[in-house]
Amino acid sequence: MYKITFIAFFVSLSVFSQSEKYRLIINDDPATSGTIAWHQPISSIGSSILYYGTEDFGSDWNSYPNSQEADRTSLAQQMHTKFVRLTNLQPNTAYYFVLRNPITNVTSERMFFKTLPNDQSRLSFVAGGDSRTDGTPDVFANRDARLNANRMVAKVKPHAIFFGGDFTFADTPTEWDYWLDDWQLTISDEGQLFGIVPARGNHEFNPSTVYDLFDVPTSDSYYAITFGNNLVRAYTLNSEISVAGDQALWLENDLQENNADQCWTLAQYHTPIRPHESGKTENDDQYDAWAGLFYEHGVDLVFESDSHMVKTTKALKPDVNGELGFSEDPINGTYYVGEGCWGAPTRNNDDDKEWTLASGSFNQIKWVWVDCERIEMRTIMTDNAEEVASLGDNIFEEPDNIELWNPESIGEVLVIQNQALSNPDFVKTNVAVYPNPFKGILNVEVPSILEKVNITLYDINGRLILNETKKVIKGSFTINTTTISNGMVFLRISTTRGQAIATKKLLKE
């Protein structure tokens, strides 16, 4: 009798000590840090410890060389959320981990995540928002659409997920319990977690929900993250508090300090400045506080949510004479895309503007590929997620059976070229090669946003003399030409993907 009682107690203890509801959060440099969060049931005995390393030891917790206890615990939404903030990690590296409760010896399945590169390697992002139900207390209402969007994330394996808010309808513990369970579908079949960058929506009624469940850098839930070596700076703004005042001042100061060094600048927030669904009001306060800053400081692409429909605008600038204060500027303008549809009930796209490129109404997420030369944005229609193949090591290809939105005005891919690299005046004033004539060492200056360039030297007969990839440091590099014969040569400078930057005629003496 005593033995049976003991076994029953131990089994019960083990069940209630399991960790669950795992997520990876990007709230600092994603090349060297990552935050692992999970729910430790409040009824459990003890708390799990994270064991991790760069070698995969499966569930053998004792073989992992590093361990860390939770840095923060949150009791929000009747959960017991633990956050482990991992720092000083190696860039572009897989980290394997398990969670183990030292009291019950219960160990989770092995999972892993990858830190991002710290150079200007190509990155893949997913962006979207509005995964809430249809407004009833039923947490299952419209849930399949959310599940499909989550499945699609696991299949395209992005470097980061920008989530624009309205996770649930009423911001209740029951809804969050299901939402976090559903989020487990974003984990790949191999056990890989993908980092979320969350924003607050109007259905996050508690101002601290995003901070308490995702450990974002500030309790006001607006912040910025840099990806790669100044490849992308991404701003997460909070449209549910004062958009002027402290938030706008912070945005302006950060743009002034950081934007000139970035290949690209992105932003996300929940409520659209100019919604494309007629039931939504125009948000003039956001227009006044943000649109001018976006244009002045070269924000390239903005993700909006809230309206539960699909839109892509032309590249826009603020213009008091334009429709609702905007007009097209194809060179320096900002693209606004959205608006939600991560499973929330879709609405009509019935409020297009003269500067709207395309709109629609269906369940979708944005899929964005970024390198320093260009952005490629696809809109994935998510309803057939279970039929879509999972990507392998090459995450920059379209998996079998994927359905992409293909409006006549855009096609399947919206391409945004880096105007700085294709603007002759910009290149003319930012590329210099000296001395000319030269003898041994050539000094070259190029736009400082570049990390590497390809250089080729040809003689006057068109024969290739030199072909190298050069690392750019603070906008400059040198070329050793001591082995090159005297005479006229032509230097061609291009990006690592082959986009021409400049060609110079030089004389070797």
TrEMBL record:
Molecular functions (GO terms) = acid phosphatase activity; metal ion binding
List keywords of the entry alphabetically: Signal
Q: Does the keyword Signal apply?
A: yes
Give the source's domain of life in one word: Bacteria
Pfam families, per the entry: Metallophos (PF00149), Por_Secre_tail (PF18962), Pur_ac_phosph_N (PF16656)
Q: What is this protein called?
A: Uncharacterized protein
The organism named in the record is: Croceibacter atlanticus (strain ATCC BAA-628 / JCM 21780 / CIP 108009 / IAM 15332 / KCTC 12090 / HTCC2559)
Q: Is Transcription regulation included in the keywords of this UniProt record?
A: no
- Residue stretches making up the Calcineurin-like phosphoesterase domain: 146-308
Q: Which residues form the Purple acid phosphatase N-terminal domain?
A: 22-115
Gene3D superfamilies per UniProt? 3.60.21.10, Purple acid phosphatase-like, N-terminal
**NCBIfam families under this entry?**
Por_Secre_tail
Q: Which SUPFAM superfamilies match?
A: Metallo-dependent phosphatases (SSF56300), Purple acid phosphatase, N-terminal domain (SSF49363)
The Secretion system C-terminal sorting domain covers 433-504
